[in-house]
Automatic annotation (TrEMBL), chain A:
SUPFAM superfamilies: MoaD/ThiS. This is Sulfur carrier protein ThiS. InterPro entries: Beta-grasp_dom_sf, Mopterin_synth/thiamin_S_b, Thi_S, ThiS/MoaD-like. It comes from the Bacteria. The lineage of its organism: Bacteria, Pseudomonadati, Pseudomonadota, Betaproteobacteria, Neisseriales.
Automatic annotation (TrEMBL), chain B:
It comes from Pseudogulbenkiania subflava DSM 22618. This is Thiazole synthase. The lineage of its organism: Bacteria, Pseudomonadati, Pseudomonadota, Betaproteobacteria, Neisseriales. Keywords: Cytoplasm, Schiff base, Thiamine biosynthesis, Transferase. Homotetramer. Forms heterodimers with either ThiH or ThiS. The keyword Cytoplasm applies. Pathway: Cofactor biosynthesis; thiamine diphosphate biosynthesis.
Length: 66, 264
């Protein structure tokens, strides 16, 4: 399965849900927010949100800025 | 003095200085400067997370005690209404249904001037979605009025270009915006040093948002303190009501009577 994460295409196997992806990306327990195909996926739904080929994800954090 | 609070979206703040968290040496210096500034509202930016590297990278939010600071996520770097709205939806999710946001939609990478058309468009969407929108804009009084009419909770005109430190370039426009505004007006961008902050506050601004003036000073922590004092001094002077200016006409401060006579 190929998905785009933060603008980069990644080939991922054995990743069914968003929670799986978060684990693979070593982001578990980190404070992030995720948008899938233009829609926010609330943290409470990461476990059940299924991923499919061609999905586009944005994963963001808070950084210093004015 | 204790009653003179800044009220934004129904919440009262004792400090009228809002501070950005960008461009400091490290998060420890960020925290120290924020502390010295006395600020209660701090801006943060929303960016893609670094993937695959620096897994143990420190997180800015760990340096900003939640009970001390109200976070103000911004849309810095967004050039369209759509990107700005998506960024703030992500911020709301990231910060647990957080509503207070800073909207800025830029129109040009060189000047970072706001794209007013896109800003108005984004403001309409965000207000409808329940965000409390503090909006960065040009110092055009008509645009400021339209943004307030849309329902933005604070209007934040530039005093000069973002990060330029050029000071208050058009006090007359700021004054026009302040006199008409039904919501707080904060100068956002352009302040370079303490006197700039005092001038903005003496004009009647409700507050000031700054980042580079503090972060790019040789001693950011000391400059943060200077800005705190300047904002307080400028606000006090505004409330005190300055004396009228008398052009080319001096009036002595000491009694004119009883001066000893000149010896012959």
């Amino acid at each position: 399965m190929k998905i785009r994460v933060n603008g980069e295409e990644r080939a991922l196997d054995g990743v069914a849900t968003l929670a799986d992806l978060i684990a693979v990306l070593e982001l578990a327990g980190k404070r992030v927010a995720i948008e899938k195909n233009g829609e926010i996926v609330p943290r409470s739904r990461h476990g059940e949100e299924c991923l499919s080929d061609g999905d586009e994800l944005e994963i963001v954090v808070a950084v210093g800025g004015g | 003095m204790s009653q003179d609070q800044l009220v934004i979206a129904g919440k009262a703040y004792a400090s009228r200085l809002l501070v950005g968290t960008g461009k400091y040496r490290d998060f420890a210096q960020t925290a120290e400067a924020l502390d010295a500034s006395g600020t209660e509202i701090v801006t943060v930016a929303i960016r893609r997370v670094n993937l695959g590297q620096n897994a143990d990278e420190p997180n800015l939010l760990d340096f900003l005690p939640k009970n001390r600071y109200t976070l103000l996520p911004n849309t810095a770097g967004c050039y369209s209404a759509d990107d700005a709205v998506r960024t703030l939806r992500l911020a709301r999710e990231l910060l647990d249904d957080h509503r207070l946001v800073k909207l800025e939609v830029l129109g040009d990478p060189h000047t970072l001037f706001p794209n007013v058309r896109e800003t108005l468009k984004a403001a309409e969407v965000l207000v409808k979605e329940g965000f409390d929108v503090m909006v960065y804009t040009s110092d055009d009084p008509i645009v400021a009025r339209e943004l307030a009419d849309i329902g933005c909770c604070a209007i934040m005109p530039l005093a000069s270009l973002i990060g330029s430190g050029m000071g208050i370039l058009n006090p007359w426009n700021l004054k026009l915006i302040i006199e008409e505004a039904k919501v707080p007006v904060l100068v956002d961008a352009g302040v370079g040093t303490a006197s700039d902050a005092a001038i903005a506050m003496e004009l009647g601004c409700d507050g000031i948002l700054m980042n580079t003036a503090i972060a790019a000073a040789d001693d950011p922590v000391l400059m943060a303190r200077a800005m705190k004092l300047a904002v307080e001094a400028g606000r006090a002077a505004y409330r005190a009501g300055r004396m009228p200016k008398r052009f080319y006409s001096a009036t002595p401060s000491s009694p004119s009577e009883g001066v000893i006579s000149a010896r012959k």
